[in-house]
């Protein structure tokens, strides 16, 4: 049985996500539009109500400027911390 989420919230220094969950709007959008999963599949895999999945998709498309800003912030954070990752080709066993 899915957990009720309902609202999309954005906490300080965070990106929009389902209230009471750490599942982001961007993650749900990527699962459906990027990976080709159905809303029902995403809901079932993450114990969500399918309405919450549609709510997240609606939020994503209703707030294009905010979501572009979130994506730019994420890309900048990845670039900023890229030096902390290890290239698998550099690891010797």
UniProtKB/TrEMBL annotation:
Matching Gene3D superfamilies: Winged helix-like DNA-binding domain superfamily/Winged helix DNA-binding domain
SUPFAM superfamilies, per the entry: Homeodomain-like
Pfam families: DUF433 (PF04255)
InterPro entries recorded: DUF433 (IPR007367), Homeodomain-like_sf (IPR009057), WH-like_DNA-bd_sf (IPR036388)
Superkingdom to which the source organism belongs: Archaea
The name this protein goes by in its record: DUF433 domain protein
């Amino acid at each position: 049985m899915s957990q009720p989420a309902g609202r999309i919230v954005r906490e300080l220094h965070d990106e929009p996500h389902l209230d009471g969950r750490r599942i982001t709007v961007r993650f749900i959008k990527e699962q459906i539009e990027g990976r080709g999963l159905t809303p029902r599949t995403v809901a079932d895999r993450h114990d969500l109500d399918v309405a919450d999945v549609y709510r997240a998709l609606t939020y994503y498309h209703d707030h294009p400027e905010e979501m572009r800003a979130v994506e730019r912030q994420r890309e900048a954070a990845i670039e900023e911390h890229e030096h902390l990752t290890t290239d698998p080709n550099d690891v010797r066993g």
